[in-house]
Amino acid sequence: MTADSTVSSSTAAPGAEYAETASAAYRAALEVIESVEPRVAAATRKELADQRDSLKLIASENYASPAVLLTMGTWFSDKYAEGTVGHRFYAACQNVDTVEALAAEHARELFGAPYAYAQPHSGIDANLVAYWAILATRVEAPGLAELGAKHVNDLSEADWEKLRAKLGNQRLLGMSLDTGGHLTHGFRPNISGKMFHQRQYGTDPATGFIDYDAVAAAAREFKPLVLVAGYSAYPRRVNFAKMREIADEVGATLMVDMAHFAGLVAGKVFTGDEDPVPHAHVTTTTTHKSLRGPRGGLVLATEEYAPAVDKGCPMVLGGPLSHVMAAKAVALAEARRPEFRSYAQAVADNAQALADGFLKRDGALVTGGTDNHLVLLDVTSFGLTGRQAESALLDAGIVTNRNAVPADPNGAWYTSGIRLGTPALTTRGFGADDFDRVAELVVDVLKNTQPQGTSKAKYTLADGTAERVHSAAAELLAANPLYPGLTL
Ligand code: PLP
């Protein structure tokens, strides 16, 4: 914690207050694991050491609190609980009911949503639940009514085939992968691009920002059943009120995937038109990125879509991971504390500091900056591909991921950019000055990296660079320890 000690102390990650107890719990757990498979115990210890020793700038990662992590290691893992709260296909689910209901209650309260579904195992699963809930509500239910049936099992083979054909013949409009959308938003290699006829909207080539008039024009022309908003690598805020207007005009359901920025919504950094929940019919998220919970997903919905979302299992999900739902309840309880708002604000402020740090050192940023939790640095100005930049940075202990930039000439594998996010290091206590230093170190590495010939993957790093940056990074990391007080 350097210059920003006021901000840092108010954003301190949960856990320091019970570090001694958590240390004892982990020591005991590792001893037990060691007695059965010592290599797993060793890898677990090493993973903590590696995470402690690297500058983690992966925009989709974070560090969950020991309370969240410990909650996942219990006997809830052993319980089958298909169905939903109070309505299970298995007996003896009363305690699963308790934790699932708690997770849903915290999610509803935190996000101001009429309904929350805590079962999705991941973000992709949350999106699948949402898509099928939309299809069930908008296509299957009216289709059944038209055929005079109440349930799909009541249909003749011929009528069922007609309904299946309708379900498989719907349209989805989502953000393209190269402008920051996610592969589950209608990208052909993903099931979303096979289930739906899909079209994609991009960003304004001149500014890199979403052009709402162009989205509206595409929606008018294509008339999608589902309009998807949300992103994995777009460094700007989205006006969800505008997206809803567009959806309403063409009769589409607005689905927002807030997987990346849910923490900024929970922490009230994104409010009004930038808060997706009041505008979307269905909102999906992961719980492990900026929200800082366990790996998993959530779906929030209006009353209209709630009954279909509630059937996510067994519609598209296997039995719920009850131990993870319990951890979601703990993480969401943490996110409802006032400190989480300070954390979320610091995530956004730090992204700004990181962007400014690049801009003042001649780094080229997609859209010219950021107003969320991530920046997209175009590394072609350093003569590198994203792949070379990512590898060279890793050699120096800086963990980022390569990412396409709009209309990327190097394609989705080599790419021309790297994506850097602030949620994880902000959890460690990094402040604005620390992120300026991070920008300096990243630029130091990239300036000292040379491509080898015409290879898009090979590079050489100037002698001494990795060592110099490693030791500067080590200073920053030592000043902002991960899980302070936790000793194994
Ligand atoms: N949606 C978005 C916008 C994402 O960025 C991601 C993950 O990268 C996902 C969904 C998928 O999440 P998961 O990896 O938990 O399935």
TrEMBL record:
Keyword Lyase included in the entry's annotation: no
One Pfam family this sequence matches: SHMT
Organism: [Mycobacterium] wendilense
Residues that bear N6-(pyridoxal phosphate)lysine: K289
CDD domains tied to this protein: SHMT
Domain Serine hydroxymethyltransferase-like residue range list: 34-139, 169-441
HAMAP family: SHMT (MF_00051)
Assembly information from the UniProt record: Homodimer.
Pathway the protein takes part in: Amino-acid biosynthesis; glycine biosynthesis; glycine from L-serine: step 1/1; One-carbon metabolism; tetrahydrofolate interconversion
UniProt cross-references to Gene3D superfamilies, sorted A to Z: Aspartate Aminotransferase, domain 1, Type I PLP-dependent aspartate aminotransferase-like (Major domain)
Subcellular location(s) of the protein: Cytoplasm
Catalytic activity of the protein: (6R)-5,10-methylene-5,6,7,8-tetrahydrofolate + glycine + H2O = (6S)-5,6,7,8-tetrahydrofolate + L-serine
Protein name: Serine hydroxymethyltransferase
